[in-house]
Every structure is written in C-alpha cells, then in structure tokens.
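Weekly structure sync, notes
Attendees: PL (lead), two postdocs, one rotation student
Agenda item 3: pending single-chain targets
PL asked that the sequence for the first pending target be pasted directly into the notes so everyone works from the same version. It is reproduced below exactly as submitted, 206 residues in total.
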Amino acid sequence: MGYMTVEEHSITLLHLKRSPGIRSWSLLVGVASVGLAAAYYSSDSILWKLFYVTGCLFVAMQNMEEWEEAVFDKTKNRIELKSFSLYALVLTLWRKGQERIVLDLTQLCDVCVQEEKVRYLGKGYLLMLRLAAGFSYPLTQSATLGGRSDVEAVASLLKRFLGLEELQQRRRQEEDAEFGEGEEGEEDDSLDNSSDSDDEEEEDDL
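Predicted structure, written out during the meeting:
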C-alpha cells in the first residue's frame, strides 16, 4: 500500500486518503486469534474468557493505523486534515474518534519528507507541511514503513498542484533583488563618503 491514494484531483481541489494497511489488519487478526485461542482452551469462567478476547482486541485496535484524509482546496484557501481512530471510537463509546484540523492554504510555503522511528518496527517516513508562521504539521499521524519513494511521490504531486516550486523561485529572486539593491546602496554611500573626503582635503590645501 502506498503512503496516500488520490481520491480526487482537479485544478482547484486535491483530495488524498489513507486507510490502515495490511500490517494493521494482520496485527488485528493475529492478536484477536490469540485472545480467542486463550478463551477456547482455558478452563476459566466465562467472564475471564471475555476478558481475554476483549483485552486482545483492545491491544490490536490500539496499534492499528488510522483512516486519514487531506483536502487541499484552492477556492477556499483551506487545508482540511481529518483522521478517524477505531480505538478512540470504541474507548469513548462512539462519542469521539474523529479529529478535524483546518489550516490556511496561503500560509503553506513548503512540503518535505521526514524520517521517523516507528516503535518496534524501525524507520518510517511521512510528509511535513511547513507553514510561513514557522511551524510544521504532519500530513498524516502515522508514518509509512520503508516507503520513502511513495512519500516523495505525494510530495511532488503536492508541489505541482500548489505551484510551490515556482513560488520558492520567485521568493529567491525577490531576495536576490533586495540583496543586490542593498549592495548598490552601500556602494553609493561609500562613493559619496569618498567624494566628501576628497573635497575636504582640497579645502584644507587651499
């Protein structure tokens, strides 16, 4: 499974989605099977058997990846990030489990791939959204394992959709132009100072 899949892509809208991968579902089935086997072969009471099964299910759901969505809307200048956690939904008895974050699209200045350590499993990669205010926000809450190329592909898609490379080039050109004007101003000041000193020397000679 890739990092994120494209649900909708137009000139003004980019909708990305992510679902739990094979690893999450395999973990859920495996841990749940352990609980069922413990309950089946145990001679304990029915309450203990229920405890074995539900305990293993909670451990499996806690380690599952979340369902996540990212919507980049140019017409509304808005980034909407949504995540859905099965574990939080069950733990709060269906009262919570979905998070929604809205960011200002005009403040987005760059996207980059970041490496992150995944507990017990090694290295993973995720995409970071860098905002002009000076802070960064992850596109997804969980990293993808060993798939840097998949994350880089999503980063390239985002940069093309938002025109970030052209924006960065314009900013660099503006900075270079301002720097060049500053150097010219310093040169003019130094020339004026040298001419003033020459005039003063001539007056002293007279």
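Discussion points:
- Strands lie at 5-9, 13-18, 67-73, 78-84, 98-104, 108-118, 122-131, 136-138, 144-145.
- The longest strand covers residues 108-118.
Action: rotation student to compare against the earlier draft before next sync.
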